[in-house]
Amino acid sequence: MRLMESLATTETLAGIFSDESVLRAMLDFEIALARVQARLKIIPRAAARAIENAAQPDSFNPAVLAHAAQRAGTPAIPLVKALRESVQKEDPSAAGFVHWGATSQDVCDTALVLLLARAQAALESDLERLQLALRRVATKHRRTVMLGRTLLQPAPPVTFGLKAAGWCAAVRRGHARLGAAMNQALVLQLGGASGTLAALEKRGAEAGAALAKELKLGYPDAPWHSHRDRLAGVLCACGILAGTLGKMARDITLLMQPEIGEVSEAQEPGRGGSSSMPQKQNPAGCVVTTAAVAQVPALVASFLGGMVQEQERAAGAWQAEWSIVSRVVQATGLAVTAMAEIMENLLVDVARMRANIEATRGMVFAERIMVALSPKIGRVHAERILAEAIALGRAQNKNLEDVLAQMDEVNDHLDARTLRDMESPEQYLGAAQEFQDRLLSQGGKQAARGRKRRKD
Amino acid sequence: MRLMESLATTETLAGIFSDESVLRAMLDFEIALARVQARLKIIPRAAARAIENAAQPDSFNPAVLAHAAQRAGTPAIPLVKALRESVQKEDPSAAGFVHWGATSQDVCDTALVLLLARAQAALESDLERLQLALRRVATKHRRTVMLGRTLLQPAPPVTFGLKAAGWCAAVRRGHARLGAAMNQALVLQLGGASGTLAALEKRGAEAGAALAKELKLGYPDAPWHSHRDRLAGVLCACGILAGTLGKMARDITLLMQPEIGEVSEAQEPGRGGSSSMPQKQNPAGCVVTTAAVAQVPALVASFLGGMVQEQERAAGAWQAEWSIVSRVVQATGLAVTAMAEIMENLLVDVARMRANIEATRGMVFAERIMVALSPKIGRVHAERILAEAIALGRAQNKNLEDVLAQMDEVNDHLDARTLRDMESPEQYLGAAQEFQDRLLSQGGKQAARGRKRRKD
Amino acid sequence: MRLMESLATTETLAGIFSDESVLRAMLDFEIALARVQARLKIIPRAAARAIENAAQPDSFNPAVLAHAAQRAGTPAIPLVKALRESVQKEDPSAAGFVHWGATSQDVCDTALVLLLARAQAALESDLERLQLALRRVATKHRRTVMLGRTLLQPAPPVTFGLKAAGWCAAVRRGHARLGAAMNQALVLQLGGASGTLAALEKRGAEAGAALAKELKLGYPDAPWHSHRDRLAGVLCACGILAGTLGKMARDITLLMQPEIGEVSEAQEPGRGGSSSMPQKQNPAGCVVTTAAVAQVPALVASFLGGMVQEQERAAGAWQAEWSIVSRVVQATGLAVTAMAEIMENLLVDVARMRANIEATRGMVFAERIMVALSPKIGRVHAERILAEAIALGRAQNKNLEDVLAQMDEVNDHLDARTLRDMESPEQYLGAAQEFQDRLLSQGGKQAARGRKRRKD
Amino acid sequence: MRLMESLATTETLAGIFSDESVLRAMLDFEIALARVQARLKIIPRAAARAIENAAQPDSFNPAVLAHAAQRAGTPAIPLVKALRESVQKEDPSAAGFVHWGATSQDVCDTALVLLLARAQAALESDLERLQLALRRVATKHRRTVMLGRTLLQPAPPVTFGLKAAGWCAAVRRGHARLGAAMNQALVLQLGGASGTLAALEKRGAEAGAALAKELKLGYPDAPWHSHRDRLAGVLCACGILAGTLGKMARDITLLMQPEIGEVSEAQEPGRGGSSSMPQKQNPAGCVVTTAAVAQVPALVASFLGGMVQEQERAAGAWQAEWSIVSRVVQATGLAVTAMAEIMENLLVDVARMRANIEATRGMVFAERIMVALSPKIGRVHAERILAEAIALGRAQNKNLEDVLAQMDEVNDHLDARTLRDMESPEQYLGAAQEFQDRLLSQGGKQAARGRKRRKD
To answer: Does the pLDDT of residue C450 top 60, yes or no?
Structure first.
């Protein structure tokens, strides 16, 4: 993880997209290709062995390859060349069988897919931690009332449980979308020069199917060298998930404002401090999440724009993908990890939540009183009376119920006791708990399935 | 359809997002809400009737509403106000029941969803036309050979059938993705002020379910006012589909260059001409497609970025959505329509396709000869010989086979006849037809199901 | 202004990009072209008169033209055709001289530039209102102290004057950037079929210069049909300005949270209310600004991506520009207008600003005390003591000064009086006023120049 | 340069944004801050010396810092901490004066600006090479005729000199824009905790000015911690320049299609080959340019969107900048470098350019003949005749002149000789050379100034 990218990846993901890991994935493709072709008697068994022996990441200098990749327009050309030279030294008769029937895009695309499979595993594990934490928070705070806030202004109360359940369900949907998109995208690319596998004569599809199996990837109906929609699906799923995580980070950042003070990231050494202000308790995890999320949408757009790829291989749009894909996945992964840690340790100030409702002096229940008054005195009249009462309450720092209790037109229909009850948050939660239960129930089933599957 | 937007929508879609249609959708929500609430005895039956009577699009001035919407920050506030005033005139006791228990976002979001459902129908029909046309083209040209082109340079041959089948399968996947995303997104939004439906007391979820049914929408687990991932899914699906259509338009634009001349959009009056050049046969449909597609990715990014919505209702990001969503859908729809028309009338010059292969003088078969020579004389040696022969052929305008036939090192292993055969495009198609069949088979099943479903 | 776009434009700008106005601009180009060519004796004087007579917007049906534009791939072809037919009826010999030597892109690009010039005037006037209002706010609140807030957590105090001056200077820089970019971009496009004006033989540049003068546009070194950097400059300037306005809207939205309550948009009928919550005082103007701003960056990216235009005229990227450019300018303009209105009427609660500082119980002055203690007892020691004191203060709801005054290690160096003084906001403003003066001085000069220039 | 980023940076720029270089820039800030404060007697001279001694990049472990940066939400906090500890070991009394009066953003922003200054120098040098090469190409091919191509269809001829001059002027404008934006942006950030430099009491602006001078940066009117428009200007300038370079790469890629074959990148070992196709002469440099350019617009949009930064320091948007800025600059720089190399070695096939004009069999001169015929027989009539002649010529593979010469209606007005002359490209270049001269003249003056300035 480099300094310039310290808010754009995680150590795990930086490792997955590191030179060593990229080399490993490319060489895994070449090894598996040779192995499968030997098994199918397309190339000699000895050649496959020689290739496998030579294809060790340590034998290659990534800096030299990167330099050559920039000249060649793809890392595949210098890597294949270096591999061939290496095989040549050991077994000259085998060198010609390196990369047999394949083309640059085959090794680059398949290597990317192999890296994505590893990245998915990393993301999955944090996504599960995150959902578990959210489910726990939601359950714990099923009855914790807090202000609803719309356009950042107070609105009738919600529960913190409902809010957390909403986050949880959105993460669950995002997780499911990512899983589905990955399932579609984790397929072999093997097309040869033009996508017909002509160099393998009639055995192209057979070799492809065997190679996919060897690499534990799906085998698509045809090579996808110039149709990038499956990868686009993965990036879009990352983009949507990142959007959800960004929303959560924003919510928490706002709730952490000391003037609101309802929740807080756990503070610990090296986290949340400032280089100049000793008193600071910064939303460091949310900041990291927000910074990571901010980079994703535009990169998704880059990828979508780059889907316009010419004929059987694009002149530029394809070559831009590695950088874009790896950045989207890394930034999304960072947001997942940061948010999982936040949610596992979130501090909730239940008293402050209630206090903030009370601080509105009943004003957020104006809708409720309006609804109660309207049928009795007409909407227009009710609106006028409430507007007056609210203005008066604000001017005199009085509770809305107290102002209303003084107004005859109200008194005739709602007594002081009723008015006071109308300003009880617990009495004005509507379907909050029903919605929370619905939001979590589906996830529960999925989580159970998820756990089961893993045991297999 | 306005001049400024004539390359950004279709007449059908412009109609769906027109003032009249938007008003209609918003009023449909208010009517259905009242009707359902009357049925559930939440509001009086007479009030619902009065609301239904008043809620006629013709009674409202969209320009006035748009002006007021800009001041209010949402079109819902002025519309509800105007509807209430209108009901008030007819039945004062009913006016208070307009929009009962609902909030601005409920009517805006649900109206948008209703418009999306209509737009989907429009897109679906063109998507089916397009796939039918592509299937026909692919089948007809199953054996039509043409140059593969990678990085816009000649590569071993493909078939035009395979290319069209690749387009077709990508459109099919895009269609399926859009359908799935729409299925998820076409759900009611009804949450009231804070998303708890508190004003409906314990009957919120019941009313919601009934309203969803009334409007023929799905009923989600909870209101989705500040979780926009389902809509994001629709936009991403549009973005991916647009990318595929853009690729097709680029392919055809390139093949239509007279220096290549392999396919052509049908020319007809008002299409493909120039305001200054009488000889012009422009790829007008592809230009329209490309222009439409170019607008989509960034708008998708805007939406993804806008998913960071604060608490129970965002202060800005939500309000930006109408414009973004309607533009994405319209631009994508234009691309689908334009491409369907292109493919239904595409002119294919089979002879020119073959001539362009021959014009490479066998050079695109160099890979094949390399593959044949390598096992006999070693890869390094074969590479050197081919490089020499290619240079010589280029310098002397000779066919690769003729140059090679003069070289002893080749002669010893491949005779002139074999070399000539190696440069037959039909003999070097590998798995092209197998891949084509696989690409189309799945679509065939789907198309069949599609047709069946429609009959029901 | 349509409902779907009511948060994406202003009435003025919607008018500038309306069908009528677009037609007017295109016809202005054709009229001026004919007039200038007649003057230069390139076409007959009578032809120019006939063209001028026929080129009345009312004579054309924009809906029909838009429909035809979608088929032709550009509005120019149907418009020129319709104009020619119209002239033909009046003076057949003149019809051939319509659009003489020009091509579609000439009329489309120049019309767009003419519309931009009108839009610029609209934006300028609101930009000046906005800067005037900001300057007034800044001057009035030069000594008004308020919390600094970093990462949305309290930081040492700033003045509201400094904050407003920072906004003002950023708007001024944005204004200057937009002006400079417009100056570069408001140039004629006249290149003919391929950009050489070949149909005008040796008189192309002469005709171009005259036409530019006639249309009050600059005349560039050469036609810019496929180099779009000048327009890109305008869009980028809009993008940067929008970013600044978005920052201002976000700041105000946050300060308007009732828990903070330091500033407020003026509330008035139809603005800031809610369709369900009578107590609501929403940041409606900020919401509109934020919604408008949210649409701009991605559209700028679309334009930048679309600069990759092929050869002498692009097949798609150019055709996408009208929609993109008009949306960027309209959204930016809406943000300017909304923000000008907000700033002209902003309510500032000076007492609340001070109260919010006090509510931190001196914690935001921890840096100051640290700076004072460090040289005396060493940084490490000072840090430890402050950390303790802050924790204690928080736990016991005590002021930092009071806690510190009890600690011997502090007492030895800073007495209670000194500590109390250290928590006076006015005493800890550093260079705030100096910075404010510097920020405003430059604007003052510019504003003066601006006023002068206008008098000329 | 890593494999994943080998098409997203250059070795020079990767070096500038490497860990070592980033550390160097951050430490340079801390050293200069201490030195200047010592000079102004704000801190002891000995402290400054101790800080300078300790601030050696080798003493810090970037991987450890990056890890801590991710926890802290900024690299500044761990770096300052590590530096303080390092100073503490050497001179405990000095440790407290590390980073005196500054905050995290001061060191991060100023370090970024220092890196940008270095990057600018790298870009400048390649931009000058590129313009020199373009000027040479343009001058050499001032009379080289080639097809104009609009919508990728043949249009009347242009000169290759004009095309190259157009590229050159656009690069020059881009260069100027970047220079101006850099001039604005290369300014110190020093604001302390809230941007008032309160910890420096009344000496903040004085210290700031001195520090700016020490670091050879401009000193702005005030700290710009939450107004990011100057940086946005740099990114936009990169975005516009990248667009121009992308257009050039697309043009060359298209002209390199063998079916067109008018220009070619120089081929050399390791460049332009394929891993499977021996005959390939790929546009490798254009591919690299296109891939680099493709990444820029969206990142610019990310930055613009991120300008919405809260109050005195943003909670996320600011922290996302390093990654975005460094990527934009690196990708743009790669495009400049790649394009400079292409243009310095571009192969031009003048004969093929002429042959491609001739291959249109005079059709591209149809406009010219129309212009000549119209005044004689009327536009409508002329249009009809030309349409007929073009259709006939296409059907019979005849030259347009030959078909027309057979038509009585033409014969009466234009004889065979005149018609033949009308199809001479050299006779139909209009203002091509005048435009070329205008395009290059300004650059010449600038280039001369540029050279002079450098000598000083």
So the answer is: no
